[in-house]
Design brief:
By secondary structure, this protein is of the alpha/beta class. The protein has four helices and four strands. The protein folds into two domains: 42 residues, no CATH class; 42 residues, no CATH class.
Length: 104
Amino acid sequence: MVSEGIALGYVRPLSRVTYAAEHASRALRLQAGSRHVGRVLLDLTADVSCVQQKINCSPDRLQLLLSEDDMLGIQLADRLISRGARNLHLHCTEESSSLLFKLR
């Protein structure tokens, strides 16, 4: 039914911009900036061979985290702690109740 509508000109497919999986950050920036017309698609059918290594943190070094978003800063701190970090300084632009609760 839809294909018939497209063939007869009653239905027009949405315009789209397709990005490869390795350019996902570019696609998300385009969508976040509301500069896209139609839809932004990621092509996940191709074999992605880029594998990022895990970060291992030294427990005797200082990790300084600067973040405008307190939840993102907390999640990053949790991830660094799970990877061996022990001395963290988190600086957020404003204190929230979730940040104060997590610090306890």
